[in-house]
Design a protein that fits this description.
Pfam families: DEAD, Helicase_C. By secondary structure, the protein is of the alpha/beta class. Helix 21 packs antiparallel against helix 22. It has 4 domains: 42 residues, no CATH class; 226 residues, 3-Layer(aba) Sandwich (Rossmann fold); 175 residues, Rossmann fold (3-Layer(aba) Sandwich); 226 residues, no CATH class. The strands form 2 sheets. A 7-stranded parallel beta sheet has the order 3-4-2-5-6-1-7, with helices on both faces. Strands 10-11-9-12-13-8-14 form a 7-stranded parallel beta sheet, with helices on both faces. 37% of the residues lie in helices and 9% in strands.
């Protein structure tokens, strides 16, 4: 009896209940004393009788006490502890370690329901805190089943591979890593183990980690999870699973993961054998998601709508601007100008620049990132400082992608060059700009990209920078609140004609041109092929579309000949187009002794000059033919893309006044011409910073960077792109005036 009372006290039975129990005990003892000795009750039966009396008394007492609403509306995380809804260790992690106080609308609407153990389908937009909405119930259920895991201790029993209690399925690797990172923060002071299984990572290393540490919460992508479960030698079992979460369910179905989900479900224990809670979260609720919920959730599951139908979606609240550039060669200068504006606004008291720059293909992501990474530092710092640069796309390893996403998430100011791998589900805080270079393929893609900014009540803005001939605008942006913007001066420049430029525009073109020089030919060739394919498949006027891409190689990258195209691409060309003007030589030409950005008729004409002569180079002062291109209006002796010396000829020439311009070394060494001249003459071209007599572009196959300094050499001077001999690759710095 004393043990029974002590158990009641340890269970938190109220003092009123204990008084009633003592009265019942006294009354029972009096009845036993008054009973005849023949009515003696055996000890075991007497214990069962007392337990029954205690239960009846407790029920009677509770009926007279005011009821506590454990699952009513909540708005603060502390209420989870005050109401006894979640384990104290979880509440402490949320409020103390993570510094959270108030719940988001999604969390307030779903956490209480999920803690009750029912199946639930919730419609919630990304960036609204739904990750914690399912992690809190998961962790509470695990600790409730094994209280020894509530506190971190070396004495707790080690977990095994088949100890997985919760499974979270995510559509992308990045989102899975993000969920796992949040789960590790929540479980930091517990003995609960979180593991990740995603494609692109080392399967063997992941299995070794699971064998060594065990697993309680497994976050996985469908493909890798199916691989592990179907591999009888992996040792991954989910026989003890009690919670299944499908995050971004609409994305899972959009990406074609329905068969994998059905297959995974067959590996899970039957509900009759092992009760399981299933939680489904989705930004939208199309018919396919509703069908999935009916198939995986209990018939009496709860549906929670956290999207206010009267609230304007993100893509309607965020200001959206469209910049139509003159040609593909204007894309990078216009992007650079926009980023400079964002940095300048931050210096004047605005929010720090944090931008995601989306491209439609991986090749374009790589090229864009390489160009901006090679911008010449000013005073030892990047022109976009303090913003840090990141890239993320499918060709990176999972480790690289995770490092990039985590780095961008943590920095105050940064620029992420990205493909669509980060367009949905990823939560990057404080993003000020979403910039889409070329119009995306579909309206859904556009909307999800815009959704990366303007999150959690923060302001943001969306930009689309695309050529004026892009026909996808009509279909993709139809009906959306996108307004034309003409504030970027470099967007409308005709880079194929001479022009007198303001200081800022001249500086931008100079710096982008110089940075483009140090990008490997492989990346340029990949983008050229991709864009040519797109143009041939979608352009109404094929000849004009093809010429636009050729102009990009000549005026945007400074190539004398366009990159070589495959026979497959050449087979798409319409009749009447000269193949030699579209596809360059597959091997270096000995006969090419002219520089890039140079007139065909001679070396005396500077950068971006016309074909039919004239003494002035491209983007040159109209009043003087003796100076190079990209000059400022003030007529200083140093025009853009010109050497620092006294030579009268413009366009990427050396300091010593060599007769031919074009991306030449500043020193006096003689380098081969573009595409390699064997004669070792003094002609310019994309020459290497190596010894004299070396040929230019397209080196032997065992050295992919022959025409440009290797990355290690380029970075040895702080990213300024100097040659191996320490000399700079060109003298195109614009030196007069500030940025704004």
């Amino acid at each position: 009896m004393h043990r029974a009372l002590s158990r009641c006290q340890s269970a938190g039975i109220t003092s009123a209940l204990l008084r009633n129990v003592r009265v019942a005990r006294i009354a029972g003892l009096q009845r036993v004393a008054a009973a005849p000795s023949t009515a003696f009750i055996p000890s075991a039966s007497r214990f069962l009788h007392i337990q029954q009396s205690l239960r009846q008394t407790a029920e009677a007492t509770r009926s007279h006490e005011p009821s506590v609403d454990y699952h009513g509306p909540i708005s603060r995380f502390e209420e989870l502890g005050e109401r006894g809804m979640a384990h104290p260790a979880i509440v402490q992690a949320l409020t103390k370690q993570m510094g959270l106080e108030n719940m988001t609308d999604v969390q307030a609407a779903t956490v209480g329901k999920a803690l009750s153990g029912i199946d639930m389908a919730a419609q919630a937009r990304t960036g609204t805190g739904k990750t914690l909405a399912f992690l809190v119930p998961i962790l509470h259920r695990i600790i409730e089943e094994n209280p020894a895991l509530a506190a971190r201790s070396s004495h707790s029993p080690l977990a095994s591979m088949d100890d997985s209690r919760a499974l979270v399925i995510s559509p992308t690797r990045e989102l899975a890593e993000q969920i796992a990172a949040e789960a590790r923060r929540l479980t930091a002071n517990t003995n609960v183990i979180v593991q990740v299984a995603v494609g692109g990572s080392n399967k063997r290393a992941a299995l070794q980690e699971m064998r060594r540490r065990g697993c309680h919460i497994l976050v996985a992508t469908p493909g890798r999870l199916t691989d592990l479960l179907s591999d009888e030698y992996s040792g991954v079992k989910l026989s003890k699973l009690n919670t299944l979460v499908l995050d971004e369910a609409d994305r899972l179905l959009d990406d074609g993961f329905w068969p994998e989900i059905m297959r995974i479900e067959r590996f899970l224990p039957q509900r009759k054998e092992r009760p399981r809670q299933t939680l489904l979260f989705s930004a939208t609720m199309p018919r396919e998601v509703l069908q999935l919920s009916r198939q995986l959730l209990q018939p009496k599951h709860e549906f929670i709508q956290t999207v206010n139908e009267d609230e304007a979606p993100t893509h309607e609240r965020v200001p959206q601007k469209l910049v139509r550039v003159d040609g593909y060669q204007n894309l990078m200068p216009a992007l650079y100008e926009l980023l400079l504006q964002g940095n300048e606004a931050a210096k004047n008291g605005g929010r720090p620049l944090k931008a995601i720059v989306f491209f439609n293909t991986t090749a374009e992501v790589e090229l864009g990132f390489s160009i901006f990474r090679n911008l010449r530092p000013k005073d030892g710092r990047s022109p976009l400082a303090p913003a840090r640069l990141f890239e993320i796309h499918s060709k990176l390893s999972q480790f690289q992608r995770t490092a990039a996403s985590e780095g961008f998430r943590k920095v105050e100011s940064g620029i992420m060059f990205s493909s669509d791998v980060s367009a949905r589900g990823m939560d990057f805080p404080n993003v000020t700009h979403v910039i889409q270079v070329r119009c995306p393929r579909s309206t859904d893609t556009y909307i999800h990209r815009v959704g990366r900014t303007g999150r959690a009540g923060r302001e943001g803005e969306s930009w689309v920078i695309t050529p004026k001939t892009d026909t996808a605008i009509r279909g993709t942006l139809k009906g959306l609140p996108v307004k034309a913007d003409n504030s970027l001066g470099t967007a409308t420049l005709d880079m194929k004609q001479p022009a007198e430029l303001p200081k800022l525009q001249a500086m931008i073109l100079n710096e982008i041109g110089e940075a483009s020089r140090f990008v490997g030919m492989t990346q340029k060739s990949s983008v050229y092929t991709v864009l040519m394919n797109i143009s041939l498949d979608n352009s109404r006027d094929m000849e004009a579309g093809v010429q636009e891409i050729v102009d990009l190689s000549k005026y945007g990258w400074g190539l004398r000949y366009p990159p070589a195209l495959s026979r497959f691409v050449l087979g798409k060309l319409p009749r009447g187009i000269d193949v030699s003007t579209v596809s360059g030589p597959a091997t270096p030409r000995e006969s090419d002794d002219r520089s890039s950005f140079q007139d065909r008729r001679g070396g005396s004409r500077g950068g971006f000059g016309g074909r039919d002569g004239g003494s002035r180079g491209g983007f040159q002062d109209r009043n003087s033919g003796s100076r190079g291109g990209f000059r400022d209006r003030d007529g200083g002796s140093r025009g853009g893309f010109q050497d620092r010396g006294s030579g009268s000829r413009g366009g990427f020439r050396d300091r010593d006044g060599g007769s031919r311009g074009g991306f030449q070394d500043r020193g006096s060494r003689d380098f081969g011409s573009a595409y390699g001249s064997r004669s070792n003459d003094a002609s310019g071209g994309f020459s290497r910073g190596g010894d004299a007599g070396e040929r230019g572009s397209f080196p032997p196959r065992n050295n992919d960077r022959g025409a440009y300094p290797p990355r290690s050499d380029r970075r040895s001077d702080g990213g300024q792109g100097r040659g191996r001999d320490g000399s700079s690759g060109g003298s195109r710095r614009y030196e007069s005036g500030g940025l704004f």
